[in-house]
Amino acid sequence: MPATTTDGSRPQRARLGVAVIGAGYWGPNLIRNFAGLGTVDLRWVCDRDVDRARGALVGRSGVRVTDSIDDVLNDPAVGAVAIATPAATHAPIARRCLDAGRHVLSEKPLACSTLDGEALVELADRRDLVLMCDHTYCYSTAVQYLHDLIASGEAGDLQYLDSVRINLGIVQPDVDVFWDLGPHDLSILDYILPADCRPVSVAAQSADPLGVGRACIGYVTLQLANGAIAHLHLNWLSPTKARTLVTSGSRLMAVWDDLAPAQRISVYDRGASLGAGDDRSSRHAALVSYRLGDMRAPALEDREALATMVTEFVDAIGSGRAPLTDGRSGVRILRLLEAIPDSLALGGAAVLLDDRAAPHRDQVETVVQNGRER
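Above: the chain sequence. Below: its structure as tokens.
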């Protein structure tokens, strides 16, 4: 029987102690959302720039500030850590926190290699800890609607997906356009695609018209297991900004426009089908017919995706279950990202994912052990 207090009521569960590491671009958003959760005690903000950390708190009292991760991990009341630091530091910091017995929420990418990502998943499993990736778009009502439209079978058989994420700037100093913008769209695809429709090959092309030494424009084509195709257009040098995703099924097509708040999703009862004539030898034997039905714009709940994401993190810890965007989803994204330079090196030829050697368990174990010895 659950324990009770002297007056016969059940005691309230202690609030989860949380620390946010990194108070730069994204950290303040995490701070704001964790501070707004009644089930969470935001205890620390850690950043190399202590003044920046204080500024990110926007006057919130009771939250301590430090430039040392050791201060965070030496606090026994901290049960979970959110990491919003530069990409190259995600895996080392996550490893320290997992080794210290803390649940981890990491900004994307989870790591800079599939091997390091697998090692984090292995470590989290071994310590029975939650490891989650902040794939924020997966928690938006629009993307969740697309997921349900496909998962329910209402859209029919998937035919293609076409994603565009373009704008003017910012050219990143440490990563190319694939690693900067690609994780957003790849995480969306990973979420909305059924398991039997996941990518089997990756082909990529790129351009560097500025001569900065890394791709500023990128195109990625994914062949899916069911025979469908997905295409990503990523661009730092577009005069206009666009964030759209077209999903085409045999019954329904849908368009997500993230920059159209009044109508983010449009669902079309439109499509094409192939009919066969009586004379198989005739060039007119196969005829394409078109269906031009209605369009509907579903009403979507207006809520912040990041708030849903941090709630999922806290709920997964409380229930002991895997979160929606767990470490394994982060590893799947890393595997796709790592296949892109392989394709570029082959002049844009498709690279079969099964032909790329997955990390052996002994390699993963070595990374886990080496991380402990640092």
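The longest strand covers residues 237-249.
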